[in-house]
UniProtKB/TrEMBL annotation:
Listed name of the protein: SRPBCC domain-containing protein
Chain intervals for the UniProt region annotation (Disordered): 97-117
Pfam families: AHSA1
Domain Activator of Hsp90 ATPase homologue 1/2-like C-terminal: 14-90
Family stated for the protein in its record: Belongs to the AHA1 family.
Superkingdom of source: Bacteria
């Protein structure tokens, strides 16, 4: 399985599902492909766990099996990813941080080019 950014010519992350236990747990490998330093870090593991808490739920994300010298670009984006997920789930709107807007603006520009507008 791979993930692609609209602005990237190729996938930026690849991995495979190791454990799929809906709606409680997803464990998958992750290999970052967005740059030489990220690629050199190799494959790590990301575990998503959801547990009920009253009438809500708690999401715990653990990114482990990282090499000791892994660059922060491989693990440092989780706050933005999780914040974006929370915003989208609560409001239906996308996050408006500079990083997330970069991808949103790229998508709008590509759609404008396709329609000639």
């Amino acid at each position: 399985m791979s993930s692609r950014s609209i602005s990237a010519p190729r996938p930026i992350v690849e991995g495979e599902n190791l454990v799929v236990d809906p709606p409680r747990r997803l464990v998958r490998t992750m290999r970052a492909l967005w740059g030489p330093a990220a690629e050199a870090a190799g494959t790590s593991r990301v575990t998503w766990e959801i547990e009920p808490v009253g009438d809500a739920c708690r999401l715990t994300v653990v990114h482990d099996q990282l090499p000791p010298d892994v660059p922060s670009e491989v693990y440092g984006g989780w706050p933005m990813v999780l914040s974006g997920l929370k915003t989208w789930l609560e409001t239906g709107e996308t996050l408006t941080t500079p990083g997330s807007l970069m991808y949103q603006n790229t998508e709008k520009n590509q759609n404008t080019e396709k329609t000639g507008g």
